[in-house]
Amino acid sequence: MNAGLSALSEREKETLRLLLGGHDAKSIANELGLSVHTINERLRDARRKLGVSSSREAARLLGEVERGAPDSLGDSTLGVAGASAGMGKKRQGAAHRLAWLSGGMFIMSLVIAAAVLTVLAQGSNPGTARPVSSAGAQSAPTQAAAVSAAQEWVALVDAKNWNESWRTAAAIFKSQASAEQFASAVTPVREPLGAVVTRVLRSATPTNALPGAPAGEYQLIEFQTRFAEREVVETVILIREGASWRVAGYLIR
Question: Which helix (H) or strand (E) segment is 240 a member of?
Answer without folding.
Answer: strand 231-241
